[in-house]
Each structure stands twice: as C-alpha cells, then as structure tokens.
Amino acid sequence: MAKLHLANFKEANFQEANLQEANLQEANLQEANLQGADLQGAQHLSVNQLSKVKTLHATKLDEKLLILLKKKSPALFEKP
Fold first, then answer.
1. Least C-beta-crowded within 10 Å: which of 8, 15, 36, 73?
2. CB 60 within 8 A of CB 42
C-alpha cells in the first residue's frame, strides 16, 4: 500500500494510474487529472478531496464514494 497522505498532488496527472489501497489522507488533489484512474479501496479518501479534482471520467471508485460524488458533482464524470 502506498502511503501518500499529506502529499501535494495539485494539478498532477494520474490518468489511468493504479492507486488501489493507497492512503490518501489529507492529500491535495485539487485540479488533479484522475481520468481512468483506479481508486478502489483507497484509504482515507473523501468526497471533499475528490470534488476538487479536474475530472473523474472513467475513474474506478468504491460504490459509496461514486454515489455521493455523482450527486454532488456530476460534471466531474463527463468526458473532458
């Protein structure tokens, strides 16, 4: 498991990245490109963090986060 807590990933490109099981507690994901990334099982990942990213199009998320984010920020799932 990658320990990426408190990391600054502002505007990072994680397109198609495998971040399964990564600890993303308090990581800054503002404007990060997560298109097609796999975040299933990522630990300490919040709706607040993900609502600030550039895109979540085709991103794999745990079901609970997916449902909450599609309600809060549906535009993040549109194709860029």
1. 8
2. no
Number of domains comprising the chain? 1
Residue 18 DSSP SS3: strand
- CA atoms lying within 13 Å on the CB side of residue 19: 30
pLDDT above 70 covers a percentage of the chain that reads 100
User: Residue 35 belongs to what domain range?
Assistant: 1-73
Does 78 fall in a domain? no
Does 80 map to a domain? no
Tell me the pTM.
Answer: 0.93
Residue 52 belongs to some domain of the structure: yes
79 located within any domain = no
Query: Tell me: the pLDDT tens digits for 3-33?
Result: 888 999 999 999 999 999 999 999 999 999 9
* Token digits of residue 23: 């600890």
